[in-house]
Amino acid sequence: MNSLFKALNDETRRQIVELLKEKDMNAGEISERFNISKPSISHHLDILRQADLVTSEKKGQFVEYSLNTTILEDLLNWILTLKK
């Protein structure tokens, strides 16, 4: 759970999650939306992947990233249990 909160603690990573909410994208498509280097985007994607917020799949010469909604559902369910 700590890696999940660490991943969501950064504004750029939250924006990447928002982008992936709309559609699956490769790193190049994601980096076009930001004014930061491609290696920085790759670093952010790696942190999101380690937290299981995104999944990656090789498609041809590109790696496509998708939002993993299961982990978000687990987080939401956990938060709701705190409401008692």
From TrEMBL:
Domain HTH arsR-type positions: 1-84
Keywords, comma-separated and alphabetical: DNA-binding, Transcription, Transcription regulation
GO molecular function: DNA binding; DNA-binding transcription factor activity
Stored SUPFAM superfamilies: Winged helix' DNA-binding domain
Listed InterPro entries: ArsR-like_HTH, HTH_ArsR_DNA-bd_dom, HTH_MetalResp_TranReg, SdpR-like_repress, WH-like_DNA-bd_sf, WH_DNA-bd_sf
PROSITE patterns assigned to the protein according to its UniProt record, in alphabetical order: HTH_ARSR_2
Cross-referenced CDD domains: HTH_ARSR
One Pfam short name: HTH_5
Record protein name field: DNA-binding transcriptional regulator, ArsR family
Provenance organism: Flagellimonas zhangzhouensis
Lineage: Bacteria, Pseudomonadati, Bacteroidota, Flavobacteriia, Flavobacteriales
